[in-house]
Every structure is written in structure tokens, then in C-alpha cells.
Amino acid sequence: MSQQGDRPATTDDWWGRLYDESARDTGPAEAPDDTIDDRFDSAADTLGAEGAADATTRAGYGQAVDAIGVDDEDDEDDAGDEDDDVDVDVAAAAGSGPVSRPLAWWEARGAYPVIQAPAPAPASPPTIVDTPPAVPPPPPPPPQAPTPAPSPVAPAPLTPRPRAPWEPPPAAFDPSDARPLPGAVDPAPPRLTTPAPAPAPDPRAAAPEVPIPPAPEPAPAAPLTYVGDRPPTYDAEPTALPATEAEALGQLVADTVLDGARYGTYTLRAASMRGDSARYRGEPRRDALLTARFGAGPSALVLVAVATGARATEGAHLSAADACRWIGGAVGRSHSRLGEDIRAGRRGDLKSGLHRLTDRTYGKLRARAAELGREPEDYTASLRCLLLSADPDCRTRVFFGVGGGGLFRLRDGAWQDLEPLLPEPADIRGEPVLGFGSARSEASAEQTPEGDRLTMDLEITKPPGPVVEDPVPPPPEPFRFRASVARPGDTLLLTSVGLAEPLRGEPALGDELAARWASAEPPGLAEYLSDVRLRVKGYADDRTAVGVWEA
């Protein structure tokens, strides 16, 4: 190669020009050997400081070429090509900016990176904005079948460039010192532009919705155990058991009795429990409850009997149990005839027949009192009964009994008192009957309406009547009877005196039970027991209740 950079056409031509005496001599070299350093010094003197910096970079890579073992003596052609490339780089450095050149053989193989002259640093750091340049949209392409989009090529990882021998080691890695690996596609450089001002917030824009945590569910309220302004005095649970003897274990009664059934269109619930006062004093339950079914199928008859022994008498619970047992036996022996009368609606036959059965029961109670050597009024009980047919087509409900208690019906959310009304003895009024000793009867016997006397007064003294030293016994309890037709949704409630009195005396009790039983479904046994034992201050007697829910 000549010092002017002319490339010979052939190798022989190159040697001819170098040693031809007719060629003009350009001047001998300063050093005996023509090396890269000599050429660098020549280029630095010619280009100045800026060009020298660029040439320094390229000269460093020339030394790198010597380091990897490119020997000029072994391959003269390769050495000639290397010299030519160096001249091209020096010529490019003399220009105003970086000039692209073809890659050398070692660069094409990926052995060394391509180094360009660094651009001058800007006065202020530019801001990268993703806004694309305004380019007119291209014309729409003709419609064609959709083709799968090529998968995007991920940018190649950046690798640092090798450091020249004369460069000091860098303090930290600079991203500008890296280049993509060979064969990778360089991503497009970001567009430098002035940052756009941030848009002002729109006051009309709705604020972001912040999820509101759900409010905690309120704790379930404690079940109501009493009604009224304050709780009852006695404890709500049993505290003492009744005393008994070893020979009288069969006379014990449980504190609470619970029963139920379902026949035809009605559901039956029955419960009997000791009162608060009896639980506190350790007295037995005076109320007795009997639930029995006679027969089978649609012709079956269900009897529910409730009896309450006389208050403050010994063995009151025994008389109540005897009354229930004897009335149950009497109805059981006549259940076929009673069932036919109920299904046929024969009110007269039912009333007279049940009256006779009730009288026989009380006759047995008086006989039992005589056996025990006690007065009849001490060994007696009030008796209330319900007769229910198991026939689904029969909705006649029959009530009968003697003594205190209650019969109620819940219809359309309101209570109705169905207790049959009985006239008081003082309210009985009527004309005197001839021959019974009234003043008018005596006058009628002595004279006619015209004033004529039929007999004369002989002034005969009448013998005195018998002397009665004992008080006159109270008149017996009248017999009560009622037959009614149930409607769907009705609730019939038969109770003893212990529950009938608070229902009539405390309206809050009836309101609470009506609210609990407003549902069409009847309560379960445990729920029904909880409803019946709802306490009221001032009422501490035994409670017995029989409920019938009509479907």
C-alpha cells in the first residue's frame, strides 16, 4: 500500500510501484518500521485534537488486532486489507461526523463491537415521551384474509464493550457502553421532545368509588322469657323436688310433660309444667295432662284432657290424674259412637252423651273421696277436654268440661275467648211457679181474681222446718259444651287456670304469643314449650296448654 492510500490492482503491481525508481518519492517514514502508532501520529498531526480522539479509538482497536494474533508476515493479503481499512477510518475521522463503513471480517463474525465517535452531550437532559411523530396515515390496504401477526422480537440484552489498553477502568457500568449481541434487532431509539404539560384534573369527574366494608351483623337478641315491666320473683328453673315415700313412688308426677301429633288437617301440641311457686316450695304439679287416640284410620278419635286439682288440698295431683284417667276410659269405650256424631255434626246427641260421661267421672271422684275418708270438695278437680276426629274431611272441634280454665282461638292475628258464658245465680229471673210457696201462689190459692176466698183461715200453726246447722254447700259446677268448625289458619288453645288467668289479665302475653304463632307452620315441641312457659309477674300457678294448628 502506498502512503497516499491507493489500493493496487494486484500484488505484483503493488510491489512494482513501491520499488520502481521512476515513481515519485513521497518521503521516507520517521520510524524504520511502518506501524499503527506511526500512522496514528501522522493522522493526529493532520486532523487535530478532535480527529485524534477518534483516531485514538480506532488505533486502540488496531492494537487489539495485533493482540489477537493477526501476523503481517504470515498473511500479506490480510495485512494489506487491514491497512486499507485503517486508512478509511482515518479519512472518515476527518469529516464532520460519524460515517458508516462496511464491517471487517472480524466484526462480521462478532469478535469485536463497532465503535463510533461519541456525540456531544446536550445542554439539558431530554425527556423521553412516547408520543409518536405526526405522520399522515397510510392509505387503507385492500381487504385480504387475516394473517397471524408475527411475534415481536424481544430486545437483545446489552453487553459492555471491551476497554482499550490506554483507557482507565470505568467506575461503574454505563448503558451507553453496551451494544446488542450479533444477529439481534436494535430497538428504535426513543424520540426526544419537550415534555407535555400534565392535564388539569376535571372537577366534573366522579371521585373513585371507595369500597365500604359491610357493617357487622347485629348479635341476635336474647329470647324473651317474661312479659311485663319486671321479671317474676321466683326463679325460672326448678329448685326443689317434692317429697315422697318409698311405698308411694307410683304417685310421683314429672315437672314437665310434652306431647304432640298430626292428624288430618291439624297439628297438635300439648305441654304441662309446674308453676314457679310449686318449683320453689317443692310441691308436685297439680295439673294433669292426657293425650290418647282411640281407633285407627279416618274413624280414629283423639282425646286431650286437662285437669287441675283443688288448691291447698292434700293429694290434689292425684285427684287430677284420676279425673283424666276416668274420662279417658269413658270416651274410649264410646269412641265409635262419638266419632260418628262428630263427623255427622249431631250437636244435641254429643252434648247429652258427653254430659253423662262427665257426670260418671265426677261420681267416681266422690266415691274415691269416700274411700279415703275425705270430703268430696277436697278430692275433686276441674276438667277440660277436646275431641278431634282424624278424618281429613272433618273440621268439627268439640269442647266440653266442668270447672275453671280457658278456651281461646287465634284468628287473623287476634285472640277470641270461646269460653261458654254461664249465668250467675243472682241473675236468674222469672215468674213464680204455682205451688212453690211464693206470695202470689198463696194468694191465688186463697182467693179468686174476683176476690172470693176459696178457703178459710183456721189459724192452724204449721210445724217448724228442719234445723240446718252446717253451711249450705255451693252449687255444683255447670257443664260446659261447645262445638265449632275450624277454618284454615286458625289456632285453638285450651288452657288450665294457670295460663287462662294471665291471658285474660295481661294483654302483653296474648300479643307476644300471637306474634310468635303468626307463621303458618306450627312450632316444634321445644319451641312450643318455650312459648307456653313465657312468664308474667304475679302469676305463678301450674300451666297446661293444648294448641291445635289448622292447616
Which bin fits the share of residues in helices? 25-40%
Estimated structural class = alpha+beta
For this entry, what is the oligomeric state of its chains?
A: single chain
Number of strands: 17
* Poorly predicted parts: 58-99, 432-446
CATH architecture call of the domain at 232-420 and 476-550: 4-Layer Sandwich
Q: Could you name the CATH topology of the domain at 232-420 and 476-550? A: Phosphatase 2c, domain 1
Q: By CATH's scheme, which homologous superfamily of the domain at 232-420 and 476-550 applies?
A: PPM-type phosphatase domain
Reading off the top of the CATH hierarchy, the class of the domain at 232-420 and 476-550 is best stated as Alpha Beta
The side-by-side strand order for the widest beta sheet comes to 6-7-17-15-12-13
Largest sheet: 6 strands, antiparallel
The number of helical elements comes to 13
Which radius of gyration do the C-alpha atoms yield?
A: 62 Å
For the record, give the distance between the C-alpha atoms at the N and C termini, rounded to a whole number. Answer: 122 Å
> Could you tell me the mean pLDDT?
73
Question: Helix and strand string, N-terminal first?
Answer: HHHHHEEEEEEEHEEHHHEEEEHEEHHHEE
